[in-house]
Structure formats: structure tokens, C-alpha cells
Amino acid sequence: MKQLTDTDRQQLETKIEEQERQEKSPNPAEDSKWTSAVTRFTSSYLWKYGFLSLILCFVIFNTFILIRWWRLDDENNYIEYHSYMGLVIALILFFNHIAYFLTTTGWKSVVMKTVAWVWIGLGFVYFFWILG
Q1: What is the 3-state secondary structure (H, E, C) of 82-107?
Q2: What is the distance between the alpha carbons of residues 7 and 5, in angstroms, rounded to a whole number?
Q3: How many CB atoms lie within 10 A of CB 128?
Q4: Which of 26, 64, 83, 103 would staple 109 via disulfide (CB 3.0–4.6 Å)?
Q5: What is the pLDDT of residues 14-49, one digit of tens each?
Q6: Could you give phi then psi for residue 65, rounded to 5 degrees?
């Protein structure tokens, strides 16, 4: 008869405990898969659409500020170019979020990633144009 080492004994005890737990609760693996799937589903949708709604609020807020500044600019005949930077950043975030979190495969993904990279380029050009 073979002598068990301490590690073999611990592994055997762990397996016995697992079998006892499985006998007490039927299908624990399915329960844990379902729980992790629900958690993954919730966090995935929360990240995708929660952040999208936050970005859209940012776009709307910057649009209202821009409209308000246009009204003031009509009266004063004075335009500040840095006032557009918030909207440019919001649109960069918006297009990148759509490109990399909402469209993952197909021609839509290619188009949105192209649009996102074009907006990043335009944003940097505009940013350095303001600084220069």
C-alpha cells in the first residue's frame, strides 16, 4: 500500500470537501457560471451604455455652452477659438467610445474606427493651432 505525503493528503481532503459541497447543492458549477455571466452582462452594459450616456451629456452641455457663446459673440463681435475645445474633446470621446466599445466587428467597426482616428487627428491639429 502506498504512503500518502502531506500534499497528497491535502489534495485528497480538498477533493472530498468539494464532493461534499456538490452533494449538498446540486449544479454549483452552473450556478457560478450563471452568476458570473450576470455580473459580466451587467458590468458590460453598465460600462458601454452608462459611459455613453455620460459622454452624450458632455456633448449636449458643450453644445449649449457653444450656443450661448455664439449669442454673446453676435452682440460683442468677438470670437474665442478655445471655446470650441470642449466640444471637440467631447466628440473625440464619443466617436472613440462608439468605435471601440459598441462596434467590434464588420465594416461598421472599420468605418467608426476611421472616424474616431480622424477626429483624434483633427482634435490635435485644432489644439496645437490654438496654442500656436
Answers
A1: HHHHHHHHHHHHHHHHHHHHHCCCCH
A2: 6
A3: 9
A4: 103
A5: 888 877 777 776 554 555 555 555 555 556 777 788
A6: -65, -40
C-alpha atoms less than 13 angstroms from C-alpha of 34 in its C-beta half-sphere: 5
pTM exceeding the 0.70 threshold for the entire prediction: no
Nearby residues of 52 by Cβ (< 8 Å), 6 or more positions away: 97, 98, 101, 102
Report d(CA 84, CA 87) in Å as an integer. Answer: 6
- Which stretches does DSSP call E strand in 1-132? none
CB atoms within 10 A of CB 102: 13
Side chain identity, residue 8: D
